[in-house]
Amino acid sequence: MELVALMSSGKGSWGQVAGLVSRGQWEKIFIVCPLYAVSRVKSFDFAQRSEIISVDFDLPIKEVIEDLKKKLNGKFSGMEVALSIASGEGKEHMALISALINLPIGIKFVVLTRDGILEV
Q1: Average confidence (pLDDT) over 26-31
Q2: What's the pLDDT tens digit per position in 40-60?
Q3: Which of 3, 5, 50, 70 suits a disulfide with 26, CB 3.0-4.6 Å?
Q4: In 86-104, which positions are buried (b, 16+ CB within 10 angstroms) versus exposed (e)?
Q5: pLDDT band for position 27 (50/70/90)?
């Protein structure tokens, strides 16, 4: 299964994404991040095996959704993806979820716990 992870704001949330990436058995990894975070995200080891999708989340939400749909369209081999929204805020979450379900692609939410990766 492919992983789509939002890597934005939130104390400790980048560690959550890093853990998911390193502990999961992902076919492909897509890291969605705001423009300001791209260079920092690329400095992480796991970014080397991920595709970075940069988005201007300051745009109106309709434009963000369309941009995400355009950038994610045709990237997935299956009918659903694992999705992490542990990082980020409401507008970013809504835009990413909306873009995915309108592609259409199914989503399974994933989170890293002490016991490993949990699908919720």
Answers
A1: 95
A2: 888 888 888 899 999 999 999
A3: 3
A4: bbbeeebeebbbbbbeebe
A5: very high
Cut 0.85: pTM above it: yes
Q: What residue ranges define each of the domains in the chain, with the CATH number in brackets?
A: 3-119 (3.40.50.11700)
Closest to 28 (Cα-Cα) out of 5, 43, 50, 56? 50
pLDDT band at 82 (very low <50, low <70, confident <90, very high): very high
CA dihedral 109, 82, 33, 61 (to 10 degrees): -60
C-alpha span between 25 and 6 (Å, rounded): 18
Q: Find all residues with CB under 8 Å of 23, minimum gap 6, and list them.
A: 112, 116, 117
